[in-house]
Amino acid sequence: MAIANNARNVSYGKPKYGGVAYRAPIGTPLPTTPDEPLDSAFENVGYLNQDGISLATDSSTASITDMGGVTVLTIVTSSSETYTLVMLETNERAAKARFGDQNVHVDELGNMEITHNGLPTDQSSWVFEISLTGNRADRMVIPSASISEAAEITYNLSDAKGWGVTLAANADSRIDGGTSREYIAALIDNLEIVTSTGDTAPESSMTVNASQTLAVKVQVEDRGEVKITQGFTVTSSAPETLLAEGVKITAKKPGKATVTVTVGGTSKSFDVTVTAAAAG
Question: What is the pLDDT of residue 213?
Answer without folding.
Answer: 96
